[in-house]
Amino acid sequence: MRWQELKDEACPVARAMSVIGDRWTLLVLRDCFRGVRRFEAFQERLGITRHVLADRLRKLVDAGVLSREPYQDGPVRYEYRLTETGRAFHPVLVTLMAWGEKVVPCDGETPPLRLVSRATGEPVRPVVVDEATGEPITPSNVRAER
């Protein structure tokens, strides 16, 4: 299967991967949720080439995940903001963070990045639950079907 063909697949995972399916795109989105909006800031934080960054930002704008808005005239410069579609990616990113912390923990020298509640300051542990029942969703209690 070719990369460009993923968006036409019946599988929602394949279609999602057609939008966010590489490391740079995921890291750009991570930084967006941390408040990064400007091209130079993304480039500095990620160490990514201008060409690759421009490509990933364009794809995210084209997919409706980010919007491109001018913040300066002469020369015109743009910043990138999460759209409603982009903000809907947050639970995926949070779950990926939790998985990464469990499976690929920090080296012990650098403190790990943790999610904490803005209200209490306490650590937050994400759990994927069924909206109707509030029960955790696990491989043993759900299946995919058409």
TrEMBL record:
<keyword id="KW-0238">DNA-binding</keyword>
<feature type="domain" description="HTH hxlR-type">
    <location>
        <begin position="11"/>
        <end position="108"/>
    </location>
</feature>
<keyword id="KW-0805">Transcription regulation</keyword>
<dbReference type="GO" id="GO:0003677">
    <property type="term" value="F:DNA binding"/>
</dbReference>
<keyword id="KW-0804">Transcription</keyword>
<dbReference type="Pfam" id="PF01638">
    <property type="entry name" value="HxlR"/>
</dbReference>
<protein>
    <submittedName>
        <fullName>Transcriptional regulator</fullName>
    </submittedName>
</protein>
<dbReference type="InterPro" id="IPR002577">
    <property type="entry name" value="HTH_HxlR"/>
</dbReference>
<dbReference type="InterPro" id="IPR036390">
    <property type="entry name" value="WH_DNA-bd_sf"/>
</dbReference>
<dbReference type="InterPro" id="IPR036388">
    <property type="entry name" value="WH-like_DNA-bd_sf"/>
</dbReference>
